[in-house]
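ok, trying the design again with the full structure, not the truncated one.
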């Protein structure tokens, strides 16, 4: 499969410290045309920047503060740090959002950190990568308000309700699916089909959530090909064509230059 883009990989994670360059080489060999390397903290974003700088026109980075860490979010300090990453080439704010499943940070702090990052995305006219889990009503309200102001983004690793997906799509957002769609317990192909062709993204979320047939292993971007194939089967379309469209959609959302 040629040309797909992994829209969400934590390549700055220490899980890749021993063999990161080999992982990136395997992504190229598997046909990836780009990988979005997520900076889910200020420290991770700095590492992601270095990885992107070492792999120009293939790895692109983002910068944000994950909802798990929202308790430690300091608006003045962290928005300035994220903004500095945008100034040196980060293609999106995030990942940020709301996670009421784990509740690692108080919900009011999660909302405050998310709102501040949405405001920065609006100010800089840059897309936002959103993590949402069991926080449907608040995510819907905040995505809708930001979207109506012109902010664009993606609901990443999406497994939530049809209603939240539709609300995000209605304000111009994308929806990204991970290897979860290859798991035997996945039953919601209707969710995969409700996303229009021009709003669909695919991601590894590496090092987590390796798709079948590699489930349980450390995940890597090369294996997004399995997820693309599963999405194509659910939509009854050709896998190569779907790989090309998720790549085009990622290039449009993240304002990447055209390939080759
Ligand atoms: Zn996430
Ligand atoms: Zn992530």
């Amino acid at each position: 499969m040629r040309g797909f883009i992994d829209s969400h990989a934590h390549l700055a994670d220490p899980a890749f410290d021993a063999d990161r360059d080999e992982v990136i080489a395997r992504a190229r060999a598997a046909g990836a045309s780009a990988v979005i390397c997520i900076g889910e903290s200020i420290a991770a974003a700095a590492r992601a920047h270095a990885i992107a700088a070492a792999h120009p026109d293939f790895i692109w980075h983002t910068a944000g503060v994950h909802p798990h860490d929202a308790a430690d979010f300091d608006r003045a300090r962290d928005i300035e740090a994220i903004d500095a990453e945008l100034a040196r080439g980060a293609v999106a704010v995030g990942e940020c959002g709301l996670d009421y499943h784990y509740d690692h940070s108080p919900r009011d702090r999660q909302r405050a950190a998310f709102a501040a990052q949405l405001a920065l995305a609006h100010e800089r006219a840059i897309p936002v990568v959103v993590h949402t889990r069991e926080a449907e009503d608040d995510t819907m309200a905040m995505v809708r308000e930001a979207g109506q102001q012109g902010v664009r983004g993606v609901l990443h690793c999406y497994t939530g309700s049809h209603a939240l997906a539709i609300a995000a799509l209605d304000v111009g957002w994308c929806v990204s699916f991970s290897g979860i769609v290859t798991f035997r317990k996945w039953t919601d192909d209707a969710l995969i089909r409700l996303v229009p062709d021009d709003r669909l993204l695919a991601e590894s979320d590496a090092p987590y959530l390796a798709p079948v047939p590699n489930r349980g292993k450390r995940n890597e971007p090369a294996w997004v090909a399995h997820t693309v194939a599963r999405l194509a089967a659910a939509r009854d379309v050709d896998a190569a064509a779907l790989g090309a469209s998720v790549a085009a959609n990622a290039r449009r959302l993240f304002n990447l230059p055209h390939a080759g």
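Keeping the full-length input from now on. The chain is about 40% helix and 15% strand.
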